[in-house]
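The freezer alarm interrupted the setup, so I double-checked each line after restarting. Inputs confirmed:
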Amino acid sequence: MEKIRKNKKIILGFLLPAFIIYTCFEVLPVIMSIYFSFNDWSGIQAVPLEYVGLRNYIKIFSSPVFLKSLQNVLIYVVISVALQVPIGFALGLIIHHFDHGQRFFKAAFFIPMILSVSAVSLLWNFIYFPTEKGILNSFLIKIGLSDLTQQWLVNPKTSLMALIIVSTWTSVGYYMIICMAGLSTISDSIFEAGALDGVAGIKKVWYIYIPLLWDPIKMSVIMVITGVLKIFDTVYILTPSGGTNNSTIVPSLLMYNESFRYSHYGIGSAIATVIFIMSALVSVFSLKIMNKKESIEY
Amino acid sequence: MKLRKQILTTLLAIAMIANLTGCSSTSPEVSTDTASVTEGSATVTTGASTNSASTGEKVKISFMSRDSGDTPIAKVYEEQIAAFMEENPNIEVQNDSIYEEAAYNNKLKVAISTGETPSIFYYPAIAGLKEWAKNGVIMDLTDALASDPEWADSFLDGALDTYKLDAYGVNGIYALPNEINVDVVFYNKALFKQAGITKTPDTMDELYEDIDKLNTVGITPFGVGGTNTWIMGHIFNNILAKRIAAEGITELGTGNKKWTDTDVVECLRLTKNLKEKGAFADGFEGMDYNTQMNQFLTGEVCMISHSSPIISEMFNSDSQILDDIGLFPFPSFEDKSEYKDTRVIYTSGWMLSGTMSEAEKDATLKLVKYMTTPESIQARMDAAWRVSPYKNINAAANAPQLLKDMIAYTNTITKSVGEYFDYDTCSTLVDTSRNGILNMMLGESPEDTAAAIQADIDENRP
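Predicted 3D structure, all chains:
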């Protein structure tokens, strides 16, 4: 075994297929996408690419719709991080302490994650239905808050938040599982030592759980950020036109429209590149902030 | 240790982001999708086919429509393709049809961008075909039709003109009209009676009166699923047809007329007025097409503006009101009586690849002629009640009266026009205008809506 480990050729042989697949299907498309973003192309093979320099970028950054989509997705990211990770980890911590029914609750909270986005969207369409027949509106009427009834997905003031809630509902189960996986690696002796020192309640969360779960938390935050920056399906199904006055438009939806509906492949690629750069910047920035609080190893 | 962890976490984050951009990229996806296309439609390869013709091997062609799955029309297509292959053992037809619109468009665009254009395909555009026609992606059918006068004569008079692109600077006929979706207002006769309405409205003023009568007895006049923006778009299109007619719509598409012109803004205002007159249910802007249809088929709303293919959908449901459904043409305006006979018809056509070898071209023309024989068209009419632009096609004796009425009405049409964006080369117009109309229903002024649409056209029209 040791001999095999030292044989670099064998190691490279095992790594090569994965490296080739990753390069062909991940790295090259990114590079090609950046290349296409400096060109204009109508999507017809016989028509050659036309180099246009930064024109596609100038066009998208002078488009109020694109700027609105950036604003929307950043709001989406901030609120999603603030909701999905804390709720997911809180659920994980609570359920971890259940003596009975742990499996049931794990499954119950994880099920939305494995449902198709179409099914989830259909369900939330019933909840957000714009008349008094909608589940949410009818609930508000029943508890005497009929003034709060809304066309949730149509009203520009509520539509983005309505989508964020759908994403949160879908995703918290995933972060709950990550939290529980993290918790299973923590030795009981740490809690026993903490108990002897009188650490309990919120102090236990702050001084034991959060530091020990810091790496899973960091990873979860990055996953939320990268996941939300590419959010497309939920938005496309629930508000296919990008919402009233573009209230729910996001860059991925714009990119899809520009590329596949309008055959503006250069502009679509420029939007993809901006999403890539934005994701890199936001992720690195977030990691930098989170790395200031170092994780603890015992 | 700390540094290693930081590097690892950063690398992992970058990998996730790369995954995102990789998935998001456009042309690079071509490389992956090409593989799947190659398995299907892209079995059409020029070299291979030329060779196959000379060696007696099968010529492979592909057919791509939006009719797939277990729908009646999809089954008929499958049967007709199978029968064609049986009669022509040297031709293999790959049916690559996809029902879901976005998936269909994605596959078609990828196929065209890689030079693997399906032999026969459907695409909802007229002016939008200009670039494909200009660059040889689709075939000019003028010669094929001229060489077979009997075939050319089987189409309804003027139907082939739909796909003449001369007005856009490309000479020729670039698609064969396959179906015509005639727009009408379907209504519930029982609800009309309940509201005391004794005849269907001929003019918009009469329609407004009927809307009042329906509202008085608590019946919602029109069902509209606003989130599917094409529904309000179709209502607007009917108003446009009745006020500026085919000539005005063509001028709008070719840029000789602007959306900010008074008569176009007036059409937007009249569309908005329908809401103010109480034509639609509260909250219709947030409802979808399924809700609209459910409301109509359960007798909750009285009317829907829709086209002929909806008849088979309605009769495939277990609705209790089917016998009460009637239809009438979209009403006209008294001050524009000269356009009262202009009807909205959405034509869907078959485009043929312009990049095929001679052997593939011959096989494809053979297939398309086979699919447009009176027998084939009648079979599709009988099975799926699709109205086609061909002569001497009638509803089967056991077809519902509504379909017979629709065909009888279709035969009376002398002036027709399609969807306004079909006449415009601006690819973004469909979304900008439909979203604009929905926003207008939610509060924007017709003037601002028109200005926003015109600005988009000025920015994006090639």
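Quick read of the result. Residues 20 and 26 of chain A are 10 Å apart (CA to CA).
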